[in-house]
Amino acid sequence: MNSDDNMEMVHPYQGRTLVITTQHAKESILRPILANHLGINLVCTTGVDTDLLGTFNGEVRRVGSPTETAIQKARLGIEATGIPIGLASEGSFGPHPQLPFFNADQEIMVLVDTERQIVIEESVVSTATNVGEINVASIEEAEEFLAKSLFGTHAVIVRPNCTSDPHVIQKGIVDRYALSQTIKQYAGISPDGLAHLETDMRAHLNPTRRKVIEAAAEKLAVRIRAQCPECGTPGWGVVDVIMGLPCEGCAEPTHLVHKEILGCVKCRFRKVTSRSDAKKSAPAHLCPHCNP
Ligand SMILES: [Zn+2]
Ligand SMILES: [Zn+2]
Fold first, then answer.
1. Which pLDDT does position 61 carry in this prediction?
2. Is residue 154 within 8 Å of residue 206, measured between CB atoms?
3. How far apart are CA 263 and CA 223, in angstroms?
């Protein structure tokens, strides 16, 4: 606890029970984090089929943005339990938005509060991901892929490479013998003789992804804890940035963040502050004037 915590009033979520919608054991990641930061008691929904909102491997196509999907998921848990405040998260995997040669895992996490009619959102983008896919005729051809995918501690999904039936699929495979047999079987029924392997990104089978979800949960908990100085609503935090951090050499504006704009999710109160890392100038090698 720092001195700020001591001065704060009791947080409105302190001691409250919130619900998380998940089929993949995310509650065990979030429960201790929300308990530590906010004194929240987290329960998990049972019997809500989040796959109806889409699956990673395209059996059910996702509609809407990851944020919209996460909000929909949280609302399903709220409706199923009658608990008015719910959480959910949504992962996306693919090329990094700023570093196209790296794959990334973006985890979006939301809190939906139907009492205050607010949504609090945080996200983390991490290059720590094993996401990948390959087509092979046998397990021997997949060795490099399996090593890179951390197969064994992480699961894979297999299906025939060419198939019109999305239900011919084996998910959650962590056993080498089972994998070898499934590749053989599916390569045998695929017209091109290949089985399609991909990393299973579901949270309970992917420890690398669980770490990224944990980071997103930490970030969200910090944001939930921060209350609007004007109306007290939880979720106060950075909503926008102002670019143009001055160069250390020539003081001209660069393409780096100069100021952060903090905002409320309820009353639209805004406040401009310095960068949270207290950086006052940009290195000259990133300056378009000094280093064009
Ligand atoms: Zn400069
Ligand atoms: Zn406010």
1. 63
2. yes
3. 11
> Ligand 2 centroid vs 270 CA: distance in angstroms?
9
Q: Averaged in consecutive runs of 10 residues, what is the pLDDT profile of the chain (292 residues)?
A: 54 96 90 96 83 63 82 94 96 86 94 98 95 96 97 96 90 96 96 96 94 97 97 96 95 95 95 93 94 84
Helix axes 27-38, 207-225, angle to 10 degrees: 30
pLDDT of amino acid 1:
43
Name the phi and psi angles at 11, rounded to 5.
-70, 140
pTM of the model: 0.85
Closest ligand, as measured to the CA of 226: 2
Tokens 């669980």 identify what position?
A: 210
Side-by-side strand order, sheet with 237-243: 237-243, 257-263, 270-274
Calpha distance 179→184 (Å, rounded): 9
CA of 191 to the centre of ligand 2 (A): 60
Tokens of 276: 């949270």
What count of residues does the chain have? 292
Residues 6+ apart with CB under 8 A from 258: 241, 242, 243, 244, 245, 246, 275
* Cα 275 to averaged position of ligand 2 atoms, centre (Å): 21
Residue with tokens 């929240």: 40
Return the amino acid letter for 150.
Answer: L
Quick one: pLDDT at residue 6? 45
